[in-house]
Protein 1
Amino acid sequence: MKHHHRNPRARGGRKRQPSRRDPLIGFEAPVTIEQVGARGDGIAHVAAPDGKAVLVYVDCVLPGDEVRVALRQKRGDGYGAEIVEEITRSPSFNPPRCSHFKECGGCALQHMNDEDYRGWKHDKARTALLRAGIDAEDADDLIADVEISPPASRRRAGFSVHVGATGVFVGFHGRFSHTVLNVPDCAVLRPELMAFRSAFVDFLKSCPPDHARDIKEVFVTLADNGLDVLVHASADPNLDMRQDLAAFADTQNIARLSWKVGERPDEPVAARHTPLVAFENVEVPIAPGGFLQATREGEHALVSAVKSALDEIAPKQVADLFCGVGSFTFALALSGKRRSVTAVESDPRAVELLQYAVGQSGSPIKVVKRDLFRQPLTATELAAFDLVVFDPPRAGALAQCEELAVGGPEWVLAVSCNPATFTRDMRVLRNGGYEIEKVVPVDQFLWSSHLEMFAVLRRKQA
């Protein structure tokens, strides 16, 4: 019998090291909130046991609040902390408008009074301009009043869905959590969306649990002629589910209900009529889950800012970049004097729907499908226009701004839903010879940290 002698130099199996628990997790201490951060959370410093000052982020607080917190998780260069005791509240504290405020992750600043909230949004716009290289005094002169959408005005929402042993949940995730909370009295959504949510909960309760559990999210948009509903699910609905959904859509007066599994194209389950939105009295169909401005009030504020700029610029040839289904396109073409507009968009469905509306209305608009991230309009192509308007996704329009900086027209109107990429894009344009003449902050996501910004830029004369 052979004996295999073990090499004495051979390394043994690695011993599993016990996980090192952060000693500060669970640590409690009183703090005074110093400021509200960019995400709407309170920022403070706490003295750790070793004497070092530790940065903490605390939800649902205001500057001047004195609270006792427990550190719960590492977060960037500090720690996320949870309130364990309220000691003293700031005089600026406002009772939250929604009973779910502390648990729900949707709103960050319901507890801030209206005046301070408006000032905080103004300061976000001011900070973006300062980071773009604008002097503080000039920044104050450039920024117009913040346009804030009222409560119960948001017309688009994605409801998370969880069906389990404890019941049916249709709502939003909790703060820093994957738990889905029911939100029967959301203070920011249109009543039509909240009525749908309630009815959909009852519908799911009536479904066989195995089928209801397939549904993971439902995205609802209030079009001008009814609700457009897109269900995201993990499996296709069977025949009974299809029939039940069609009956539900009919009962709830839903314009269209579609079903989507993974990356596959969505499939209409009930199409009673095509959801439409009107721009300058031109009706435009929308795709399931397609982009619209979050509130009608916010859309009106942005379109009004565009029209106001048009009165001064008086362009004849306009490029509307990242145009979607035409939020600004028809205003650019039809308000006041008719103008020739080239509308550019990468989403093939949006392009098709916009082309249809343009054809039906006879508007002086040319619709072009083009990915402006990969293939921006070149300086040579931009020479054909005397005004460029762009409204990109949150990633911004860096590649296009670089081309504008080289050979853009005299005037540019920029719309941004992300102050960080707005700052970057403005720096590029200013380095290319443009100056910002006006900024309008638009708040379509009430009591959140989000902010949209509209800017008028003009190229300096050599």
Note: The chain has three domains: 28-93, 117-150+292-459, 156-273.
Protein 2
Amino acid sequence: MNEVREVVVALINSTAVISVVAYFLSRSRFYDDFLQKRITWKNRLLLILIFGLLSIYGTASGFKFMGAFANTRDLGPALAGLFAGPLAGIGAGLIGAVHRYFLGGFSCVSCALATIVAGLVGGLVFLWKKGEFIGVTGAVIVAVVIQILHAGLTLLIARPFEDALKIVEIFTLPMILANAIGMGISVSVVVNLVKQRAWEQEKNTIAGELNAAREIQMSMVPKMFPPFPDRPEFDLAAVLEPAKEVGGDFYDFFFVDHDRLAFLLGDVSGKGIPASLFMAVTKTLLKSAMSEKASVDQVLFKVNNALCEGNEMSMFATVFCGIVDTRTGIVEFSNAGHNPPVMLRRSGNLEFLSSMGSLPIAIFEDSPYTRETLTLEKGDAIIIYSDGVTEAMNKEQALFSEARLLSSLREVKGKQSDELLKKVLADVHGYAAGAPQSDDITILALQYRGPQDASIEAAAGTH
């Protein structure tokens, strides 16, 4: 009974050391090469040497009884075989086998042969799994099978048979348990590392997709300001700050003819690549439809029907769409479910633009949209924004709110459009105070300055 207890203690100590070595190896570049299937002769030879030395350690740290050793020697070659195939397993097994053979004893031949067989078994499992690393349960079964083969070889080869039988009776169960535990711990380290690498790869893939989405998003919007330096009738500025989890905000502006400027801002439902792609399609369709000089309600009606076709992901977009006549300041607009813009009058009065409103685009085919008008006097401005502004949150999850937006704009009356944007952005970021940005922040400000003198004279000459 004392012998069994001493065997168990010795084997546990040996297993613990081998498990620690396996853990530190798993954090090395050498280990990573095997996980990535970058197996060269150089690192295969290094693996043979390392696990061959572990095999020798398994013998040296074992418990000697009747000229035999209770040990974890087979663990090193078996792991080498599981990692890199039969050649690695047999190579590490030969190192451990030669060392065991020269220690002598009546079981030296059977034990040396069993060590080589352990490496071969690990290698055959590697081939059977086609290079994929076996799971913890499978590795434990492999360890048990190897120890049963070890016991069988001892009974078959070692003489006298009575001594071999006694050794098997005392050693086999503790060796099965110790090697199975050691194998399970060592392999669990590898399995967890594989899962960690897979998680990191997935994380990097997602990060790459989000970067691609941001690039798509930012490449689709104008970024040069002032956009029309030779047109003093208006002052226009816009900004888009994508969130970490990119969404589908967009804005655009362009002349539909010499005197009429189209401007729009939208927000696509959802996040990531799908939202950015849907945004790109939506923005392209809107610009194409408006270039045909259709009224804003007709534009939204046409684009809505185009987006409804094949919209299997049920995505949609809110859009504010307007066209300002730079000669008169008259704006025709249509609001498809978007936040109400802010009207900043020259007098300093602030108000949200009331409108009949319509459904977002891409929800229902043939959905009607309403055309409305307003008049901008000289010095008046219209500010369109996405819900990333009013719904920006601080660390207490409280919203920035429409009231704070009005308060922010009230402090910059009479300023140029870019100053309006800077003030709002500064206030939003200050309010968030480092809290993560959960949605895109998009703002477009258009300030009407009135027609050029030459345009007035030309207009007067036509009457």
Note: The two ends are 120 Å apart (CA to CA).
Protein 3
Amino acid sequence: MFIGRQNELKLLNQLYESNSFECLILYGRRRIGKTFLLDEFAKKTNSLYFQAQESTDQYNLSLFSQKVLSKFPGPSYLKEFSNWHDCFQYLYENLQKEPCVLMIDEFPYLAYQNSSTLSLWQEFIDHSLRKTKTLLILCGSSISFMESEVLGYQSPLFGRRTAQLKLEELTFFDAQPFYSNFCYEDQIKLYCTLGGTPYYLSMIKSDESADDNIKRLFFSNYGYMYNEMGMLLKQELREPAVYNRVIQAIACGKTKMNEICDYVNESSSKVSKYLSNLIQLQIIEKHLPFGESEGKSRKGVYQLYDLGFRFYYRFVFQKQASINTGLGDNVYDQDVKPFLSDYLGYGFEKICIQYLVKENLKGNLPIQFTRIGNWWGNNPKEKKEEEIDIMADDNMNLIIGECKYKNEKVEFSILQQQIERSKLFPKYKNYHYFIFSKSGFDFDIHTVDKAFHCITLEELCK
């Protein structure tokens, strides 16, 4: 079953129907759904799909030759091509006849084994493909390679793309078909433990409880998620042991550079390199207070962007010894489940931001904001540090949001608290307040001032 990615499919179809040559650079981290997207797109198009292997250049040429000759049969004596130039020439002669999608998956594997690969494809595009109605899709999982060696200005392929698409994780709402049979609280629990990676979400079994799904995937040494994070780090990075420590530090609440350095016992220059690589892989992100910019603010903190990594390194990584001896269920019941409600608050906040972004695109909010985030800083009146879960603005108007993932209903006093917080930002003309509550409100939300929008769990998730 194909879930989500409707905007991405729409882009692919637009490129295919342009009646001219197009080159799309498609990339994103492993398991994010690139190949699945290409498979779905290929069902309704005239296409040739090739997945490069982590092998020799000659082996990949042989495999590609077989794909080309299967799609465009030639003389019976022609079994494969001896070089890429001859293969490209034969392919060009056939691509002139009708529009076609040429998909090259795991493109970096070709370049790793042949230093001329990028130049060969540049020549193929410039002298042949541009004369056809081909949609060329170069796809890769190595984000650093795709951004520097394919999209970078020093790349031979620089300037050849007509579009690029970095595939992101699914939002809670796009991913809902994976867990639609569960109650809303369990939907949030599953999303906040597995994250928005489609492959992980596809392993949810609707005939098991949310807790049993989590136990099966994370708290058994046979579970898919038990070794997944470590394997991904080994595939993408050198020194995975140090990266494990960096991620674990952030998962345990060490979010500032000096705190992370102390935790891993490494210099700031070295840790900075590790953090940069993890940001590029979309495992962590550097977070700034709303309205502040990189380079000017010293308040940046590091957070785990990927909710699956966040859950694994918060609860699983340090309990591997117990899990390996078959005590995974006990670990979950005693060391995870009692603390899960508090832990889910961060993911709930992320889902609330996704909700506002979704509604903003539909024009359903009192303003159409141009930026959104969180804010933290000094409250000079109260002489204390203040945190605001959500802020969004259009320069003249401000949205302030509060996210409460608690078992208690939100009290009426929180409305006045939001008004007081808005006074920290006096430049705005109008203020709107969104309050999200897991357990509802202890007052009639239909009688409050129209500036307040009280969102129940049902309204959020429906």
Note: The chain has a mean pLDDT of 94.
